Amino acid sequence: MCSADSMHAFMKLLKNSPAGAVFNPWHHRDPQHDAAAGAPVIRREQLASYMAERQKATVILLAEALGYQGGHFSGIAMTSERLLLGHLRHKGLGPEMVFAPAPRRTSREDVKADGFTEPTATIVWGAMRELGIDPRGVILWNAFPWHPYKPDKGFLSNRTPTDEEVMLGRPVLLALTAYVPQARILAVGQKSAALLAAMGIAAPALRHPANGGAGLFRTQFAKELKKGRG
Questions:
Q1: pTM of the predicted structure, to 2 decimals
Q2: How far apart are the first and last CA of the chain?
């Protein structure tokens, strides 16, 4: 299968999000917080641009699930809208690291003037910058590719996906690996490690950067990248 076919299959599979307290940013509209009805289309386009620039990626960094402060509005895993809008330049992070076309916001400005920011996203992108990694050599993704939220809290909340939900991400991950067959997978957190184990894929497990794990994540990430170069 050529890369174009693999990417088409990947994008098509993203439509198959499970029912329940799950938001699909590429096919669902957030009526309370999206700026316009076309927000899902923008998020699809941004994900497609991000992926198109990473056909030669050598690493897939696989975390747990999309969050409301990240991919819910950006359409890209572990990537905040604030980064896309250029409001993290004081941290050395700019939208040109993500993809070349000018990004667009999908959240309403009166919800968050500078767009939502996600701590994990900032840590991961910051680690790539600090380690001198070409960000186009890394694809950020999640074991459960959609956004699980708490039903009683609404879309601006996160919940841990169930083990059964995580396994639903398998076809999407397989399509992603078909798109970048040369890429090694690094697991970030226990949920992603469990999915990979169930798929029979051996992958190093990195400490999740949240809850005080940023330092260890950077150290382990650097070590694994060094191994890959060796």
A1: 0.96
A2: 29
